[in-house]
Specification:
The chain has a single domain, classed as P-loop containing nucleotide triphosphate hydrolases (Rossmann fold), CATH 3.40.50.300. The strands form two sheets. Strands 6-7-8-3-9-10 form a six-stranded mixed beta sheet. The chain is globular and about 50 Å long. The longest helix is centred in the C-terminal third of the chain and has 18 residues. Strand 9 and strand 10 form a beta hairpin. Helix 3 packs across helix 4. The chain contains seven helices and ten strands.
């Protein structure tokens, strides 16, 4: 599904070049749950941001089903990012002035802003169904500030799924949750993988949760160990 070839990423602060990714090669198969572990600062988040097309690499290629996504122009890359991948962050990044349902609908409304009211109704119904599947139907009209941390993260998961991506990237998704809630969220990922054949790439410091992944990639100093 994904092939990463000699991926490199540098930043250029006033002090000089900072190499974060130093040549990474690996593959991800459809239907896998891949855990990415490593100490803080080794490049886990940077790598996920590039794989999710939120940032561009300094060098190297990311091939999705054989297509080099960074050969796309900005418009095509944005379209790919919006439709083909989902992203779940450590901090939920929900819009506080909107309800849970509206937050979940948002990617669909943005993508289809020029479409008809019929399409809007379809997005509404799909968002309701997702929240129901994630056990949040009764909380759909609550704003983020009225939800627990675990509920907010489930809303963020539903938002990531609204456009039916093939793969979901999760960057420390349990890092802001207590142990029990984090385990529940991870179980949700496992169920989604089993039921919908969703592919997951999950960066985590939690070793016990990472062991539940199908495969683990360990990062050390900007490389895959």
């Amino acid at each position: 599904m994904i092939e990463v070839k000699d991926l490199k990423k540098s930043f250029y602060p006033p002090a000089g070049e900072l190499q974060v990714l130093k040549g990474i090669d690996f593959e991800i198969k459809a239907g896998e749950i891949v855990g990415v572990i490593g100490a803080s600062g080794v490049g886990k988040s940077t790598m996920l941001h590039i794989l999710g097309a939120l940032d561009r690499p300094t060098a190297g290629k990311v091939l999705y089903e054989g297509k080099d996504i960074f050969s796309f122009d900005d418009y095509s890359l944005a379209s790919f990012r919006n439709v083909s991948v989902g992203f779940v962050f450590q901090f939920h990044h929900l819009l506080p002035e909107f309800t849970a349902l509206e937050n979940v609908m948002m990617p669909g409304l943005i993508l289809r802003s020029q479409k008809s009211e019929v399409m809007r109704q379809e997005i509404y119904e799909k968002a309701e169904k997702l929240l129901d599947e994630l056990g949040l139907y009764g909380r759909k009209d609550h704003r983020p500030g009225q939800l627990s941390g675990g509920e907010q993260q489930r809303v963020a998961v539903a938002r990531a799924l609204i456009l039916e991506p093939k793969i979901v990237f999760a960057d420390e998704p349990t890092g802001n949750l207590d142990t029990h809630t984090g385990e529940d969220l991870f179980s949700l990922f496992l169920n989604l993988n089993e039921q919908k054949r969703l592919t997951f790439v999950i960066a985590t410091h939690n070793e016990s949760l990472s062991r539940k992944c199908h495969r683990i990639l360990e990062m050390v100093d900007g490389r895959i160990k």
